Amino acid sequence: MEKRTIVIEGIAASSGFASGKVFRLEAVELNVERRNITDSQSEVMRFEKAVETAKKELTIIKEHAQRELGDDKAAIFAAHILVLSDPELLNPIKDRIISETINAEFALHDVSQMFITMFEQMENEYMKERAADIRDVVQRVLSHLLGVEITNPSQINEEVIIVAEDLTPSDTAQLNRNFVKGFVTDIGGRTSHSAIMARSMEIPAVVGTKEIMANVLHGEFLIIDGIEGKAIINPDQETINEYENKKRQFELQKVEWAKLVNEKTVSKDGHHVELAANIGTPADVRGVLENGAEGVGLYRTEFLYMGRTDLPTEDEQYEAYKTVLEKMEGKPVVVRTLDIGGDKELPYLKLPHELNPFLGFRAIRLCLEKTEIFRTQLRALLRASKYGNLKIMFPMIATLDEFREAKAVLLDEKKKLLAEGTEVLETIEIGIMVEIPSTAIISDVFAKEVDFFSIGTNDLIQYTMAADRMNEKVSYLYQPYNPAILRLINMVIKAAHNEGKWVGMCGEMAGDEIAIPLLLGLGLDEFSMSATSILPSRSQLTQLTKSEASQLAQKALAMGTAEEVVALVKEMF
Ligand SMILES: C=C(OP(=O)(O)O)C(=O)O
Ligand SMILES: [Mg+2]
Question: How high does pLDDT run on average in the chain?
C-alpha cells in the first residue's frame, strides 16, 4: 500500500533543500527520584566526579566543533564548561546534598530547575536560549549520575535527516555534515543555537514544527524545505522530482551569490548603496566578513550586559569593541549604546515592574538617569575608537533634548579622556535610531544636529501602529509596507539628504525582498541586515534600477493599504 504523504509546517531555520531517510533521535528519559542517603560526603564526591566526566566530554565536543565549525561556534561549549565550574550553580547543589541528606540527582535537578525557570520566564529570546544551555549541561551530568547513555549523534554513519523533539547545541555540534543532510525539530525558533549552527554548517533545517515526532517513523522518506519551512513525509514521485529541481536551482543560485562577496552593491543604473550587517557579539563578525558586508550597521551591545549577574566593566566592554573594530579593518561599525528595557531585561538592575515596558523606562531614558552605566560604556567605546571606523548611535530617541543631553555626556567623557592623554578617534560620527514617530516627524530638525540616522523599523512599526511586537494576536499590524510607514521613512530620508546626512535602516525591513525596491526608490543609503541576507539582497539590488524603483516608491506612497503596495511591487519586479 502506498504510504500517505503528510506535510508538516514549521519555522524555516536554515535555507536549502534536502531529502533522505529519517533518523529519529529519541530523547532518553532521565527519571529523577528523591532518595535519602547516609553518607553525604561520598554523595558530594559522586556528584563532583559526574561533573568532571561531563566536562571532559564537553572538551572533546568543543575541540570537534572548533575543527568543524570554527572558534566562534565552539565558544558555546567553553561556556558550557564554565557553567559546570560555576559555584553559583554547584554550591547550592552540594549544600542541598549535605543539609537534606538527599541524592545528587535530585539536588541537581531541583536547583538547576530553579535557574532554568528563571531564565525561561524572561520575555527575551536570548535569555530563553541560556535556559536551553543549562538544560543541556544538566542532562549530561544527570546521565552520568544515573549511568544512562545519551544518544550520540556523532555515531551516525549513513546519509540521514535527523528528526527530534529538540536538538541540544551539543547534539548539533556533533553532527557529521557528510551524513546528516538536515534536521527537523518540534521545538526551537530561528534564533535558537541549533538553528544558528545549522546555518553555519549550511544544512537545511526546519524547527518548531510541534508535531513532526508524532508523525514520522524511523527510516521513512522525508523532504526538508528550509526556505518555506516545511517537512514532507512520504512524498510522491512528482513531489520528489519537483524538490530535486528546486535543490539544483538553489545550488546554482548560491554559486551565483558567492560571486558577489567582494562586489559593491550597485543598481543597474549605477546607484551605489551600502550593505551592512547587524551583530550581537564580536563572534558574529566572522559571518559578516564571509558574507561580504561593507560594514556593521548595528552592533546591539545589550548582549554584553545579559546572561550575567552584574554590569560588564569598562575594560570588558573595551575589549569587545576593540575586537569588532579591529576585525572589521577600517570598515564602518555603528555601535548602538545600551538599549535595555522592553523585552530585554537586566534582572540585576532591579528595576521596578512596569505595566507597559515597551513604553517605559528603557534605552536612552535609563542611560540618561543612570549616567554611570552610560559613561562607562561611552568611555569604553571612545578608548576603542582608535582601532577602526567607529560610529556611535543612541537608541529610542524621542526628543531633541534627549539627543543633546546624550551627546553632551559623550563629549564630556571624550574631553576627560583627552585630558588624561588617551587617544580618541577625532572623526567619530554621532547618530540616532529613528524608531519613535515623534523623531521621524521632526527629522528635519534632528538632521541639522545628528551625523546620521538609522531607521529601526521593528520599533517604528510597533509604535506607529500601536501594536506590541511581541503579541501574536496583533502581529497582523506589523505592516512594513503600510503607506503610513513608507511616508515616515520617506520623510526621514528627505530630511537627512537636505542636510547632506546619510540614512541607514537596521530593522528587519532592510533585508526584506518586497521592501528592498521601495527603500532603494526612497533613497535609503545603507541597508543593515542579518549576515546571511547580504548576498541575496546584493543580488536583488544589482538587478534593479534606481529610476524604476523611485517611480514605484512614489506610487506606493500614494496608496491606501499594505496589500496594494505588495501587489504593486510584485507587478513591477
Ligand atoms: C533595530 C531595531 O532595534 P531592536 O530590534 O534591537 O529593538 C529596531 O527597533 O528596528
Ligand atoms: Mg528598537
Answer: 91
Contact indicator for 38, 238 with CB cutoff of 8 Å: no
CATH number at residue 230: 3.50.30.10
451 and 324 belong to one structural domain: yes
Q: Which residue has the CA at smallest separation from atom 5 of ligand 1?
A: 458
Q: Which ligand has the minimum distance to the alpha carbon of residue 455?
A: 1
- Identify whether 506 is a catalytic site residue: yes
User: Across residues 124-141, what is the average pLDDT?
Assistant: 79
| ipTM score assigned to the predicted complex | 0.99
Q: Which of the listed residues 506, 512, 519, 528 should we mutate to test ligand 1's pocket, taking the one with most ligand atoms within 8 A of CB?
A: 506
Q: Do residues 192 and 276 share a domain?
A: no
Note down the domain range covering 471: 270-544
Closest residue to atom 3 of ligand 1, CA basis: 456
459 is in an annotated binding site: yes
CA neighbor of 526 nearest in space, from 541, 514, 548, 543? 541
Where residue 125 falls among pLDDT bands split at 50, 70, 90?
low
Among candidate residues 86, 120, 146, the one where a domain is terminated: 146
Count Cβ neighbours within 10 Å for each residue of 285-305 and write b for 16 or more, e otherwise: bbbbebbbbbbbbbbbbbbbb
- Whose cell is 539582497? That residue is 537
218 has catalytic annotation: no
To the question of pTM greater than 0.80 for the whole model, the response is no
Task: State in Å: Cα 434 to ligand 2 middle.
Answer: 9
Task: Quickly count: other Cβ atoms within 10 Å of residue 76's Cβ.
Answer: 24
Q: Indicate whether 491 belongs to any domain.
A: yes
Question: Residues near ligand 1 with C-beta < 6 Å?
Answer: 298, 300, 339, 435, 456-459, 506-507
Whether residues 17 and 128 share a domain: the answer is no
| Active-site option among 80, 109, 193, 367 | 193
| pLDDT, tens only, 519-544 | 999 999 999 998 888 999 999 999 99
3-state secondary structure of 461: helix
**From the CA of 480, which ligand is nearest?**
1
Does residue 565 sit within a domain? no
